[in-house]
Specification:
heterodimer, A: mainly alpha, MetI-like fold, two-stranded antiparallel ribbon, 2 strands, flat, B: 419 residues, alpha/beta, D-Maltodextrin-Binding Protein, domain 2
């Protein structure tokens, strides 16, 4: 009994001594646990799974790096990889487009709130609806696009049926809501632009492009950074549009890695869990490059302060 | 204490079930049914059928879940292992093989041992058999064939073809009249699988087709090349509608309804939407896919939809009674009639509805398909192979010059998948 109380005292004093260090960890513990369990652990699980051949039902068979070797010979994998790069590059167009619309809408005219909401509208509606709307727009026989092309005397296009144009067609559909998102980010950013600096710039004779490039854009850096991050992430998860608009076709020409992974591992026609995991690992490495860059630039910024 | 209570409750429940079964013909307990019949007509039919079963067994608690047909195909893997229903719908032949091999479907050979099922359902027994045992029962099947616009044929003075030469001659006349011969939508690939099935079965026969799909024959063989050469004749003529790779099978229907295309190689389920779109039975008709290589016995595609009992089901006895009910002659007659599923009954004691497409289909399958009956490309071939191959067919239909590359790809896939 006496001994117990001694340890109690010792414990409580230890607790007293370390309270400052321990408390934050205690508060972080639930978050860390969930993060470990739902994010970190599955990453390693995927790494592990990519070394097996497994149909999700029977026994998993260890095959070493065979899945990666298979990837190396797989044309569909390269098509997906190429499309991912295309998505990453072209999707970034949403940033300048969003900036210019924001600049255009950043004025005080009667009803500007209405115009702003109309421009923001595509971001509010579901990606599935965006995909459907654009599918009908591109429809080779009844679609509006070919009616418009016909009106100016151009030959009809089958955007989603041609393996050379299909990915670009889907990216354009994706840019519509993404531009609206970037626009909103820039509109809030523009509110924070310092009017005194603009005044000062004006006194120094800056206007037009020079004003935009040297005075406004540098002040929008935080907004640009966020727009860049969400656009890159948006490009890498471009799954729903592809699924709705082409289902990966024609003959697999519009697949990206995430869609291809879904197709081989989880769709109606294939349950190659190991192979899907191998694709996921490649996708993870690509994302890791960007994440590392973001973390690094954020770290640099913190240090500079 | 609690466990004792539990056992006694369980014992009492068992006793009650036994007594219930003995005292009345109605079943007791639970029956959990998962259906993939999410389209309006099949859904209503299934619900009506289950209501009838409920009426016969008022004591039975039936719980029905209808899952979207496409979503079902991926969900089945989860619910068979984790939260199994007592009865689940699925497809026959190779499509059920993964679940049979993983031990997730119950062996129901005992039901088939009963002549009321074993003999009356003999025509589909093969499709339900793996390793000499039966793993479920069929509830409906339907024919495939060429559905065509009779008014257009009459206008151009054409008659139903029976040989490949006639088929092509007809097509040329249709093309000369400024229409397309066939509508098709290959966005979801499987429609192209139907064309390959027929072209290959007619060019090389049922046995070669099955050898190819089960990995015994090569995709780079001369036989396969001959099939593709025949297909190419139609493609080079411009027989298929343009831009078919962007359409689903439903989106391809308007071409036939508007008269821009004269025919559609499809399953019998295409008839209902064609009628709904305003075509009368005088305007649409049906013919069996023509002979290509003379002397090759004709074989048909007739996909069979099935009911299974998951191995992890809790109420297997009730489930067995339900399966017996589904395949009984009366039920088969009415669920497959024109007002319900509009397909063919699996029980030979049932009668086929008075509908010209069903009558022709039944006639064709029972007496004019000596080569055999196939399920369908993506049900006969393993799922992975089906996917790669059907993607190849789509590519071939758009870019026939890529044939060599496509066949190389299929050959590689075949070596990987069947080992």
């Amino acid at each position: 009994m006496a001994q117990a109380s001694v340890t109690e005292i010792r414990q409580s004093s230890w607790w007293h001594r370390n309270q400052q260090q321990l408390t934050p960890w205690l508060f972080l513990a639930p978050g860390i646990l969930f993060f470990l369990f739902y994010v970190i652990f599955p990453i390693f699980q995927s790494f592990n799974l990519s070394l097996y051949e497994w149909d999700g039902l029977g026994k998993a068979e260890f095959v070493g790096l065979y899945n990666y070797e298979e990837l190396y010979w797989d044309d569909a994998f390269y098509t997906s990889l190429k499309n991912n790069v295309l998505w990453l590059l072209l999707y970034l167009l949403a940033i300048p487009a969003g900036l210019f619309i924001a600049l255009f809408l950043n004025q005080t005219v009667t009803g500007i709130r209405l115009y702003k909401s109309l421009f923001f509208f595509p971001f509010v509606i579901s990606q599935v609806v965006v995909g459907l709307v654009f599918t009908w727009f591109y429809d080779p026989t009844f679609g509006l696009l070919n009616v418009l092309l016909g009106a100016v005397g151009l030959p009809p296009l089958n955007v989603l049926g041609d393996e050379n144009t299909v990915t670009i067609g889907i990216i354009v559909a994706g840019l519509w809501p993404q531009t609206a998102y970037c626009m909103i980010l820039y509109l809030t950013g523009l509110n924070a632009v310092d009017p005194e600096q603009i005044e000062a710039g004006r006194l120094d004779g800056a206007k037009g492009w020079r004003m935009l490039w040297y005075i406004i854009v540098p002040q929008l850096r935080p907004a640009t950074f966020i727009a860049f991050v969400v656009t890159i992430i948006g490009a890498l998860r471009s799954f729903d549009l592809i699924s709705v608009m082409t289902n990966g076709g024609p003959f697999g020409a519009s697949r990206v890695l995430s869609f291809y992974m879904f197709e081989v591992a989880l769709s109606e026609y294939g349950f190659r869990m190991g192979y899907g995991a191998a694709i996921a690992v490649v996708l993870f490495l690509i994302m890791l490059a960007f994440i590392a860059y973001f973390l690094w630039s954020m770290y640099k910024e913190e240090k500079a302060r | 204490m609690r466990s004792m209570l539990k056992t006694s409750v369980a014992a009492f429940a068992m006793l009650a079930t036994a007594m219930g079964a003995a005292s009345a013909d109605g079943l007791t307990g639970n029956l959990k049914i998962f259906l993939d019949t999410s389209n309006p007509a099949p859904r209503a039919t299934m619900e009506e059928m289950i209501a009838q079963f409920q009426e016969k067994n008022p004591e039975l608690t039936i719980e029905t879940t209808v899952i979207d047909r496409e979503a079902y195909k991926t969900q089945i893997r989860n619910f068979l292992t984790a939260n199994a229903p007592d009865v689940a719908t699925w497809y026959a032949a190779n499509r059920m093989r993964p679940y049979v091999e993983a031990g997730l479907f119950e062996d129901v050979s005992d039901l088939w041992a009963d002549p009321a099922i074993g003999e009356n359902l003999a025509s589909t027994k093969g499709a339900m058999t793996i390793d000499g045992k039966q793993w479920g029962v069929p509830y409906t099947y339907y024919q495939w064939g060429v559905y065509y616009r009779k008014d257009i044929f009459d206008e151009l003075g054409l008659s139903e073809p029976t040989t490949w030469e006639e088929e092509k001659a007809n097509c040329q006349k249709i093309l000369d009249a400024g229409k397309k011969c066939y509508t098709i939508g290959t966005k979801f690939l499987w429609t192209a699988g139907g064309w390959f099935d027929y072209l290959n079965m007619r060019t090389n026969g049922f046995d070669f087709h099955m050898d190819l799909l089960t990995g015994k024959a090569s995709w780079k063989s001369d036989e396969v090349r001959k099939t593709f050469a025949n297909w190419r004749e139609l493609i080079d003529m411009g027989a298929f509608i343009d831009n078919h790779q962007t359409y689903s099978w439903q989106e391809a229907l308007p071409f036939m309804v508007k008269g821009d295309a004269a025919a559609y190689l499809m399953g019998n389920f295409a008839v209902a939407p064609l009628r709904d779109a305003g075509l009368s039975d005088d305007q649409i008709d049906f013919y069996q896919f023509v002979e290509i290589t003379p002397g090759v016995a004709k074989a048909e595609d007739a996909p069979t939809d099935t009911f299974h009992i998951p191995a992890n089901a809790e109420n297997k006895e009730n489930a067995r009674e339900f399966l017996k009910f589904v395949v009984s002659p009366d039920v088969q007659t009415w669920i497959n009639d024109g007002e319900h599923l509009g397909q063919l009954p699996v029980n030979s004691k049932s009668s086929v509805d008075n509908d010209k497409f069903l009558e022709q289909g039944f006639e064709m399958l029972s007496s004019n398909s000596p080569g055999g009956v196939a399920q369908f490309f993506d049900r006969d071939a393993p799922a992975e192979m089906a996917k790669v191959a059907m993607e190849g067919f789509q590519e071939f239909m758009v870019k026939p010059d890529n044939l060599d590359r496509i066949l190389d790809r299929l050959d590689r896939a075949q070596k990987r998948i069947y080992k």
